[in-house]
């Protein structure tokens, strides 16, 4: 009745449809500020944001139905557009993985003989034969135990090895299976000393780690020997010593642990009477027959198992995909990003770190520190007054002035979510913002002047002259310059400039005089108001004379004024630091710009406070085996910054979806596990489950060369078969390159064997028979 998304479908029928999401985001707002015409502008209710509380069983409202149709339309677009993407993705996977097969020594190798895995899927078991090798199916096997074979479960050598491992585990319960003398020393040293976990910028290590290393190096040899004696690693597992096809009972550690746990807790509860030894023998026989056979084309199976479900993802909507509060990349775009692009700059990088249990009260403060603060978030309003300075000054000193007054929000409106104070905001305005704003204003003025020159059509004529002495050329050049200066001052050019100023919405001289008189009147009124305000401020300042250092205030004002020749004056709120005022001065000509819109645009781009690489931070409660715990989730990545808070965060469980960042910080094996988890999460959002063995082979192929390699044209250049490269794409490019380099193809890859008309060396073609003719 249901598809593979049974839980989702049941919930939508009998529960609710939930949050409708389009590409991982809530429905966008129209220009009117509404999501639909039936809602109020900027309505913050869940229904207006696309949350469907209705269910299919009782019906949904018209607005909810429209939201649902939006998601359905996206599904149709995905079917039309993303089907080609998923098809190309599957083709890329197949062309790269086509030569990977299981060999007779149980290793998984490419067609050139390079080892990708020592055991297929890390345990060597065939996926199609492992259906009954899970604890859920063990009771069924015991019901059919009579069909099992007789004899011992293990070979003598294997049994002896397992006995040795069991004995070691029993006598070393107190220690980790894999440790070293230095790690044991580090544990004892940390317990005896109060170490400083703050990270040093030069080395990237904490002070405590540096102190521990120095203490270990200074330790006497006799004391080191005491730790080295206890440095006894666990014996290698049986799969690392014996081959499954040579010895009976060679099974993976994880599978043997499942058998032991089931025998200890569940076997006695079964209705069938089977001994623990008989149960072990039954499971060993079943597992031995489930090993992947040599010649199996596991690479093609992996490509098919990843590529085929990706085509299904284009048909589904994003009802329950991702999280509404976090911006995440989903579906085919995320698969393409991981598998085909492998870029070090992904669209939505994120980190997730658990908070230590005894530090959860510090989580909110840490979240505020990681949140980026934009100037527009703390800005209440900006007033811009423009006036001209033309009276009682020389012609060269005439200027156009702008008085900018920035009013900031009161701290009570943002202190609970942003890590800034009025003092820090004001210091940022004085030291950084005004310089950036002046740069933007000057660029705007220069762009306007350049556009004016282009639109005027006044181009200097190019004179074609005969070759003459250099001195004569210099004289002519001087004459040309003088002529051009005279021409610039002619009446016709003045009229042309005035006409152009009219086209650019500049005032004529008469209008400018009228405006000047009006602005002078307004300026006088403003001055009166300012005098009144200054009188009030002066009265308040008189009461604060004892607490405010006048010299510091004057020095602060002078610092701002002297920072640029365009700053004529500066004032600020000495008492509460809730406003500041800049008076900017520019030349009279070509400086009339719309400063209000420019400041509004600039305020949305200006960052007052941020941690480099991190844009936003959220707190999330996660259920774990130990109970609910708090995690900190960030949009953006800065692992070194996270290391500074080792006393608050559990750094041993740090996770990031940026594969390159993990590879650079923790190594390629850690990146391997991130690839597996990320691909698994992409499919899990659609209710699709892909076997771990396929994912592990895929991740191992992408990382077995020591770097994170994608499935694309550039990555296939490392392939040993030039014919396989040509069969992928850009045939002529690879053909020319192979010809110039004199490349050699040994015809071992499937593509090259097909080109040469040979049988493919996988499956039944993986071996050859020698027939005795005589």
UniProtKB/TrEMBL annotation:
It is an enzyme of class 2 (transferase). Residues 465-550 are annotated as: Disordered. GO terms for cellular component: RNA polymerase I complex. Residues 494-503 have a biased composition (Basic and acidic residues). CDD domains: RNAP_I_Rpa1_C. Its EC number is 2.7.7.6. InterPro entries: DNA-dir_RNA_pol1_lsu_C, DNA-dir_RpoC_beta_prime, RNA_pol_Rpb1_4, RNA_pol_Rpb1_5, Rpb1_funnel_sf. GO terms for molecular function: DNA binding; DNA-directed RNA polymerase activity. Residues 7-52, 59-720 form the RNA polymerase Rpb1 domain. GO terms for biological process: DNA-templated transcription. It holds the Pfam family RNA_pol_Rpb1_5. Keywords: DNA-directed RNA polymerase, Nucleotidyltransferase, Transcription, Transferase. Residues 472-488, 504-543 have a biased composition (Acidic residues). Belongs to the RNA polymerase beta' chain family. This is DNA-directed RNA polymerase. It comes from Magallana gigas (Pacific oyster).
């Amino acid at each position: 009745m249901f598809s593979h998304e049974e839980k989702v479908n049941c919930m939508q029928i009998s529960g609710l449809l939930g949050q409708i999401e389009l590409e991982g985001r809530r429905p966008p707002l129209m220009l009117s500020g509404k999501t639909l015409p039936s809602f109020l502008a900027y309505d913050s209710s869940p229904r207006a944001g696309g949350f469907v509380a209705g269910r299919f069983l009782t019906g949904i409202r018209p607005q909810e139905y429209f939201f649902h149709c939006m998601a359905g339309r996206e599904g149709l677009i995905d079917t039309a557009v993303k089907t080609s993407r998923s098809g190309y993705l599957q083709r890329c996977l197949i062309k790269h993985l086509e030569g990977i097969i299981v060999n007779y020594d149980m290793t998984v190798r490419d067609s050139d003989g390079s080892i990708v895995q020592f055991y297929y899927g890390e345990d060597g078991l065939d996926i199609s034969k492992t259906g009954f090798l899970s604890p859920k199916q063990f009771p069924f096997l015991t019901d059919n135990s009579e069909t099992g074979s007789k004899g011992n479960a293990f070979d003598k050598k294997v049994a002896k090895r397992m006995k040795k491992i069991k004995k070691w585990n029993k006598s070393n319960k107190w220690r980790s299976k894999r440790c070293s003398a230095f790690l044991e020393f580090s544990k004892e040293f940390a317990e005896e000393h109060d170490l400083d976990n703050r990270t040093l910028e030069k080395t990237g290590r904490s002070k405590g780690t540096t102190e521990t290393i120095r203490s270990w190096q200074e330790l006497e040899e006799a004391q080191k020997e005491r730790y080295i004696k206890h440095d006894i690693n666990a014996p290698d597992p049986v799969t690392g010593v014996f081959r499954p096809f040579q010895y009976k009972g060679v099974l993976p550690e994880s599978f043997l642990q499942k058998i032991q746990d089931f025998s200890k807790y569940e076997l006695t509860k079964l209705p069938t009477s089977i001994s623990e030894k008989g149960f072990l023998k039954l499971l060993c026989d079943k597992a031995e027959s489930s090993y992947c056979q040599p010649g199996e084309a596991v690479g093609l199976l992996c490509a098919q198992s990843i590529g085929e479900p990706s085509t299904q993802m284009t048909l589904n909507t994003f009802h329950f995909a991702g999280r509404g509060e976090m911006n995440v990349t989903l579906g085919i775009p995320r698969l393409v990003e991981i598998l085909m692009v492998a870029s070090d700059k992904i669209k939505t990088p994120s980190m997730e770190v658990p908070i230590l249990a005894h530090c959860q009260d510090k989580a909110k403060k840490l979240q505020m520190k990681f949140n980026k603060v934009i100037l527009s978030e703390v800005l209440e309003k900006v007033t811009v007054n423009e006036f001209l300075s033309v009276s009682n000054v020389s012609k060269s000193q005439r200027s156009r002035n702008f008085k900018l007054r920035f009013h900031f929000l009161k701290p009570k409106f943002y202190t609970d979510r942003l890590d800034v104070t009025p003092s820090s905001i004001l210091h940022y305005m004085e030291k950084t913002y005004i310089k950036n704003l002046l740069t933007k204003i000057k660029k705007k003025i220069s762009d306007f002047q350049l556009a004016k020159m282009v639109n005027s059509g006044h181009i200097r004529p190019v004179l074609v002259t005969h070759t003459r002495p250099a001195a004569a050329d210099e004289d002519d050049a001087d004459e040309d310059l003088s002529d051009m200066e005279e021409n610039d001052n002619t009446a016709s050019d003045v009229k042309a400039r005035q006409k152009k100023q009219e086209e650019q919405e500049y005032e004529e001289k008469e209008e400018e005089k009228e405006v000047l008189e009006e602005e002078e009147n307004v300026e006088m009124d403003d001055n009166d108001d300012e005098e009144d305000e200054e009188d009030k401020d002066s009265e308040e300042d008189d009461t604060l004379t004892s607490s405010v250092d006048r010299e510091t205030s004057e020095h602060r004002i002078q610092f701002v004024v002297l920072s640029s020749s365009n700053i004529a004056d500066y004032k600020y709120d000495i008492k509460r630091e809730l406003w500041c005022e800049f008076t900017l001065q520019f030349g009279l000509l070509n400086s009339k710009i719309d400063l209000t819109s420019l400041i509004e645009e600039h305020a949305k781009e200006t960052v007052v406070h941020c941690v480099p690489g991190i844009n936003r931070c959220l707190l999330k409660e996660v259920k774990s085996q130990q109970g609910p715990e708090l995690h900190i989730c960030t949009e953006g990545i800065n692992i070194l910054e996270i290391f500074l808070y080792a006393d608050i965060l559990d750094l041993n469980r740090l996770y990031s979806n940026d594969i390159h960042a993990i590879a650079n910080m923790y190594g390629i094996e850690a990146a391997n596990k991130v690839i597996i988890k990320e691909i698994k999460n992409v499919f899990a959002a659609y209710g699709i489950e892909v076997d771990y063995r396929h994912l592990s082979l895929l991740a191992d192929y992408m990382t077995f060369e020591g770097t994170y390699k994608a499935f694309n044209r550039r990555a296939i250049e490392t392939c040993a078969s030039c014919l396989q490269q040509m069969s992928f794409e850009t045939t002529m490019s690879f053909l020319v390159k192979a010809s110039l380099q004199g490349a050699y193809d040994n015809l071992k890859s499937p593509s090259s064997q097909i080109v040469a008309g040979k049988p493919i060396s996988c499956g039944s073609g993986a071996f050859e028979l020698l027939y005795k003719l005589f």
